[in-house]
Structures are given as C-alpha cells and as structure tokens.
Amino acid sequence: MPENQQILLDSRPSGEASVSNFRRVSSATPALQDGQVLVRHHYLSLDPYMRGRMNDAKSYAPPQALGQVMGGGTAGEVIESKNSQFSVGDQVVGMGGWQQYSVVDANQPGVLRKVDSAQIPLSAYLGTVGMPGVTAWYGLTKICEPRAGEAVVVSAASGAVGSAVGQLAKARGCRAVGLAGGPDKCRYVVEELGLDACIDYKAHPDARSLYNALKESTPAGVDCYFENVGGRILDAVLSRMNAFGRIAVCGMIAGYDGQPVPLAQPQLILTNRLKMQGFIVSEHMEDWPAALTELGTLVATGKLKFRESVAQGLESAPQAFIGLLKGKNFGKQLVKMI
Amino acid sequence: MPENQQILLDSRPSGEASVSNFRRVSSATPALQDGQVLVRHHYLSLDPYMRGRMNDAKSYAPPQALGQVMGGGTAGEVIESKNSQFSVGDQVVGMGGWQQYSVVDANQPGVLRKVDSAQIPLSAYLGTVGMPGVTAWYGLTKICEPRAGEAVVVSAASGAVGSAVGQLAKARGCRAVGLAGGPDKCRYVVEELGLDACIDYKAHPDARSLYNALKESTPAGVDCYFENVGGRILDAVLSRMNAFGRIAVCGMIAGYDGQPVPLAQPQLILTNRLKMQGFIVSEHMEDWPAALTELGTLVATGKLKFRESVAQGLESAPQAFIGLLKGKNFGKQLVKMI
Questions:
Q1: How many CB atoms sit inside 10 A of residue A23's CB?
Q2: What H or E segment, with its residue span, contains residue A8?
Q3: Residue ranges in chain B whose pLDDT is less than 50
Q4: Percent of chain A whose pLDDT exceeds 70
Q5: Who's near B63: CB < 8 A, 6+ residues apart?
Q6: Which of B261, B267, B271 to mutate against chain A (most A CBs within 10 Å)?
Q7: Which of B52, B265, B275 has its CB closest to that of A260?
Q8: In chain B, N or C terminus with fewer CB closer than 10 Å?
Q9: What is the predicted pLDDT for the residue at A223?
C-alpha cells in the first residue's frame, strides 16, 4: 500500500491561526475492506469555513478533532476498488481531507461522486462546479432573489464563491458590483469576469472613503448583497441598501481570527425593511442538482469563468490556508498533490 | 365651528426628544367642503414610530413637517358630514393627528374607517384591533412563522404590540417569553396575559446577567424573536437563538433618541443561519383584513387582553409621548380628549 502523507490539526489557535497549529505525519494506507475504494487525491480544496472548525466553539460545523486529519474536499482518481460501482481510473470528488490518499466506504450515499473531466477540468469540481459554486447559486437565487435591473453587490468578488455570484448576477440581467482586495483582483473582476464595477477596499481604509466609493459604483443603491467578509465592508454596504433589500450571509471572514466585529447600524434593517439571512450550503442538498446543472453548463460553454491559486504539494497546505484567510489567494485556493 | 386645540412639531430634537419640541396652538375648524366630514377625536394614539418622524433623517416614513400638526392615529365620532357615506354619530378611526378635531376628505379610500364599539371598546381600534395589533400579527405570522412547540420571545412584552405578540404566540401553541421593564409589567405579562415567563430587563443591567436570565427562561433556546427594542436586549436574545431562527424587527426604541446601538455579534446570523427581517405594517395593507378579523374576534371574546395608559387632555400628549419613549407607559399609550 502506498505511503500516505497527512496533515493533522495539532493545536487550536488562540487568535490568528498559524502553520504551527498543523502537523504533518505519514502512514501506510490500510488494506481495503469490501465496499471500499482507495482514492489518490489530485487536488485538495482550501476553504474559509475550515477556520471555524479549528476552534472548539459552537458553530454550524462540529469542531475538527485534534490529532485527526484535517477535513476538506478532494478531487482525485480511484486507484484500487473493492466496490462494484467504482472502477480503477474513475475520477471522483469527495471529502478526502488533507492527505494524499483516502480510503472511502463508497456504499454510503453521497460520499463519493464520479465526475467527468472531458469538458470541465477536474479541479473545477472543487470550485465553480462544486461546493463554492453551489454556495453562490443558492445564496443568490434562493435568498437574494435578484430581479433583472437590480443592483447586486458581492464581497470577495474574485474568490471561489464571489466570482460565481457576480457572473450569475450578470447572467440574470443585474448590475453587479464587486469588492476585492487590490487593483489586480479588481481589474480581473471587471475585465475578465465582466462585472460592472469593482471597489478595492484596501484603497479605502476609512469608513467614509469606502462608503463614497460604493456610492459612486451604486448610484441607485443596492438591492442585493452577498456577504463573504463582514466587518467594515458589511457596515458600508448596509448603508447603501435600498428598501426591501436582501442580504445573503455566506461568510464573515473578517472576524474569523479573533473577536466578533460588531455591526454598526443594525437599525438600518428596520428602517430599510431589509432581510438578512445566513445559510450553509450543505443544508440544502435538494438544490444541488439544479445548481450543478446550471453551473456545469455555464463552465463547459465558457460563460462562467474562474481562476485558481494552486499551491504545490500537500506540505504547502497550511501556509496556503493561512494565506487564504488573509486574502493572499487569487480565485479558488487549491493544493495540487500530483 | 368649534375651536380646535392642536399640537405642532416646533423643533427637531438633538439627542433626546423633549416637551419643548412641541407647541400648542388653537384655531377654528374650517367650514366643510362637499365630501368632507368633521370628526371629534375621543382618543389619540401615541406610538414609538413618531419619534423617528421628529428627525429630519431618511427613514421609512417622511419626516414630520415643522410647524404642522403632529400626525397620529385617532378614534372619534363624526359630528358633521357633507359625505353621504358618513353620518353624524358614526364612530370612526383615522389619522387625525394631535388635535381635538379633524376635517377629513372622506372619499379618499382608507382615510376613515367606520368601527363598531358594541363589543370592542373604541380605544381598542387604536391598539390591539388597530395598527399595533396588526403589527404584532404580521411580524409574528408572516416573518417569525412560529410552529407549535417553538419558543417565541418578545421584547416590550406588556406594550401595545408586544402584548398581542405574546398572546398570539400562546394561541399558536408556542412557549412565549416576554421581556419588560419592572416587576409590575412582568407580573402582568405572566399572570394576566398568560405568557410562560417574563424577564425584567431592568433587574439585569449587565449583559451576562441578562443572558443568564434569558437562558433560564428559554432552556431549549429561542426559535422566534419579535424585536421592539434593540440594543443590549437584541444582543442577549441573539445569543440564545436556535439554528434557523427568525427575527422580526419591528422597532429599535433603544436607539431612537441618539446614536445607533451596534449589534455585538452579527456573526451569529451566519453560524445559526438566522433570518432577520425588518418590516412596517403600513406596507402590507393586503394583510390587514385577515389580521383584524382574528384580532377583533379574540378581543370580543375576551381571549386577547390588553391594557391602556390613558393621559387626560390633548395638552398632556407631549409629556405622555416622552414617557412612552422611556417605557413609563403600561400597555397601549393613549390620550383621551373627551
């Protein structure tokens, strides 16, 4: 059996997460039991939600156990099978975790999904045609429910989720405005993804300046906001919301590393009759087929673009993950292992 | 024509509103034109939303014009009519404002509504069977959507809106818990209105103590919250919300007089997948008939109780209104003028 490099959660962060919270080990993959398959991971997905699981606090996901392999989405190939549904060579997506190989009880429904990389690259099944893409689709279509002509704002607009939100909003006839960190990401959001405008929040360190930039890009106000960030960006967008606006709360990465960041003006929810709703895409599995059909078609036909930051080798995962939390990635953050 | 005492908005408050913001004047009521009726007000309704209209800021309602009669709901009697739809002696509810009489163009749909005080006292049409009651009904049934067995919390639980929320929640098979200021109000909420528990927020000046009291009263968490207050009470209840909880934001009286009060932990909206939605009942007129039918039936049959604080004479309105903003009322605040 091949030797399996693995990364475990070694300690919980106090404050900022760091590479020292992780530990790398190696062990032989166990022999397969009936019904199991052995998957060699080509890609590991790194996602902001993993930061929440590093804490021991009550959250939507159970905490990651200490001393265990970090959980995470993986795309790879079946290299050995004792399951009649899977053959050697099948390309599959699952939750293999931060390791090179995983042994999967493939009879459990949903744990391993065969995918076709003829028209869609394998890595995209961890991004735009996977969990992040469905997250964008669900929050936008089920919570924001934008109508053509409305203004949709999305934070972390060049990221795995945000890039899909902005393009899906454009496809629905909306004005779409992104927020991203730095001129390169903003240029990409407008020139490549086709959004109407993008605000570099790093160029607006104070609240008034950020508000003014947003006002300039959203002259008719904001009808829908897809929130990935929280903190002062949420404060600014909230001030631009139109009556009956909808806010899908997908992430609040600004507060993941430390104390909660207060919301400055909650009374705007009342005065503007806003709906603000949090969601987690894994609780809406019934919507995945419709979402994946639309996303897959758009990607295969080149109408939905995405970008990836690819770190090389499993050993690079902790550093790449810390970078993701600081916005150092550009598009979907992956680790390539083969 | 009778002499008409009126109260005008004389100046806008900076910080707390005070009686000096109002001015009393007197003028003869004008002669009626065709289609008009003259209404003598028996009761004036005082409501927290009026505080927002005293400011010149963008809000859901246009600001109250300076030098004009303060707007407000009134219940009274037609004493002169040049409109075939209304006869002298008809009991009517409208938006007559802070004055003893009003001349109403009664042909405009919705401006004047005939009511029957045989089974329901006239004053109740300004409270439980009026705008505050419909506010309770709408926020509870359309935004909170409580299911039997769920826990519903309501702030300002002895007030015009809150008292209806709690009793409607009980009627739907929920556990209902109120928050009110002082032991008398809390006793009333439990013993008279029949809620399961009531927390005297004044007895819990610090956040930890308030949270602990709430935890004791809501051992299984909170599924629905009807918000009338905001500030630290919202912070405490938010910390007790269960996954998929719903918060109807009806009022945030804690911040009406000054600076916005921040929300301490907005990330709970995400981690608990909450829906938080603001609303204004006057934008949902299509729901009023159903609401008034249920509320009227419950009041007429004694199943929906309410309490009134009645100030005597129009001249007492400013002081009574300032008292309302500080929670000095006990139940629906009215001014009796006859």
A1: 15
A2: strand A3-9
A3: none
A4: 99
A5: B53, B54, B55, B56, B57
A6: B267
A7: B265
A8: C
A9: 98
**Which chain B positions have a beta carbon within 8 Å of A277's beta carbon?**
269, 273-276
Mean pLDDT score across all residues of chain B: 95
C-alpha distance from B259 to closest chain A C-alpha (Å): 9
Give the pLDDT of residue B59: 67
The distance of Cα B307 from the centroid of its chain, to the nearest Å, equals 13
Q: Which three-class secondary structure state does DSSP give residue A123? A: helix
Closest by alpha carbon to B252, among A241, A268, A246? A268
Residues 6 or more apart in contact with residue A180 via CB below 8 angstroms: A156, A157, A158, A162, A186, A188, A189, A198, A199, A200, A201
Do A60 and B275 make contact, defined as CB atoms within 8 angstroms? no
The string of pLDDT tens digits covering residues A253-293 is 877 767 788 999 999 999 999 999 999 999 999 999 999 99
Euclidean distance between CA atoms B298 and B311, whole angstroms: 26
| Token pair of A47 as six digits | 């996602």
Q: What is the DSSP letter of A327?
A: T
**A338/chain B closest Cα distance in angstroms:** 35
Alpha carbon distance B335, B314 (integer Å): 6
pLDDT digits (tens, 9 = 90+) for B159-168: 999 999 999 9
From chain B, the residues in CB contact with A278 under 8 A are: 269-275
| Closest-CA distance of chain A to residue B231, Å | 9
Structural tokens at position B148: 């039997």
**What pLDDT score does A40 carry?**
98
Distance CA A73, CA A111 (A): 11
Query: In a mutagenesis test of the B interface, which of A267, A271, A275, A283 is the best target, namely the one with the most B β-carbons within 10 Å?
Result: A267
Q: What is the value of pTM for the model shown? A: 0.93
pLDDT one-digit tens code per residue, B126-153 = 999 999 999 999 999 999 999 999 999 9
Contact across the interface for A269 and B262, Cβ inside 8 Å: no
Q: What is the mean pLDDT of chain A?
A: 95
* Contact across the interface for A278 and B271, Cβ inside 8 Å: yes
Q: Chain B residue with minimal CA distance to A62?
A: B271
* Complete domains list, chain B, with CATH: 3-127+307-336 (3.90.180.10), 131-282 (3.40.50.720)
